[in-house]
Design a protein that fits this description.
CATH class: Mainly Beta
GO biological process, one term: pyrimidine nucleobase catabolic process
Mean pLDDT: 97
Number of domains: 1
Order of helices and strands: HEEEEEHEHEEEEEE
Distance between the termini: 35 Å
Shape: globular
CATH topology: Pnp Oxidase, Chain A
Strand content: over 45%
InterPro entries: Flavin_Rdtase-like_dom, NADH-dep_flavin_reductase, Split_barrel_FMN-bd
Largest sheet: 7 strands, antiparallel
CATH architecture: Roll
Bound molecules: flavin-adenine dinucleotide, nicotinamide-adenine-dinucleotide
Number of helices: 3
Strand order of the largest sheet: 3-2-6-9-10-5-4
Protein name: Flavin reductase family protein
Structural class: alpha+beta
Helix content: 10-25%
CATH superfamily: Electron Transport, Fmn-binding Protein, Chain A
Keywords: Oxidoreductase
GO molecular function: FMN binding; riboflavin reductase (NADPH) activity
Length: 153
């Protein structure tokens, strides 16, 4: 099957946008991801799907922990930056929770330890057990639909 057809179909599923972050040794790394889902309430689990070509894959595997920052509609540039779509390297000021970096100003931050990792084709599904959560009271989400950013509020 043609990959473009697959991506066009998957693009019809509107999602929010997150930045996954981790700290591996003393290196902080971030990556934009929309393949994020809540999995279980007891225990509290979430999942992210990370491509094997992404630097993030080895970083999470090694660190055994990661955080998910759910972006607001004011953070489109942050999403583009952590997707490698803005080429100049920037100095990012992360917030910190329990020794995990997160994107400040996000709608929510979810701090996890890797509970299970399942290779699936050219990605690995990292299931995270939630260790801590921060929720911002106000703000609207950044959305992604048909390969484009959009606002839903
Ligand atoms: P890199 O490409 O090396 O890093 C990304 C960018 O972040 C670079 O510009 C880098 O300089 C910068 N950066 C990273 N850490 C820091 C730091 N500490 N300080 C300053 N700058 C830093 N891919 C998936 O695997 N799964 C998904 O679910 C997914 N969803 C996506 C959703 C959207 C809307 C978009 C646009 C892309 C998505 N991607 C997804 C693709 C993914 O974001 C890119 O392929 C990304 O470039 C891969 O990241 P990487 O770990 O290889 O890091
Ligand atoms: P697009 O048209 O490529 O994306 C539409 C949808 O297709 C995405 O929401 C996702 O569900 C799916 N998709 C795209 N690439 C995929 C991949 N490599 N593996 C699994 N599913 C994928 O949108 P775009 O604006 O051209 O995307 C920008 C870049 O970000 C592209 O290079 C794309 O491959 C990448 N991306 C990767 C993923 C992912 O790995 N899960 C998700 C979204 C975007």
């Amino acid at each position: 099957m043609d990959s473009r057809l697959f991506r066009n179909a998957m693009g019809k599923f509107a999602t929010g946008v997150t930045v996954i972050t981790t700290k591996c040794d003393d290196d902080v790394h971030g990556m934009t991801a929309n393949a994020f889902m809540s999995v279980s309430l007891d225990p509290k689990l979430v999942v992210v799907s990370v491509g094997h070509n992404a630097t993030m894959h080895e970083k999470i595997k090694k660190a055994g922990r990661f955080a998910v920052s759910i972006l607001s509609d004011e953070q489109e540039e942050m999403s583009m930056y952590f997707a490698g779509q803005i080429k100049d390297k920037r100095e990012i000021e992360f917030d910190w929770f329990n020794d995990l970096p997160v994107i400040s100003g996000s709608l929510a931050n979810v701090m996890c330890r890797v509970y299970e990792a399942h290779p699936a084709g050219d990605h690995t599904l990292y299931i995270g057990e939630v260790e801590d959560i921060f929720v911002k009271e106000e703000g609207a989400p950044l959305a992604f639909f048909e390969g484009k950013y959009c606002n839903i509020s």
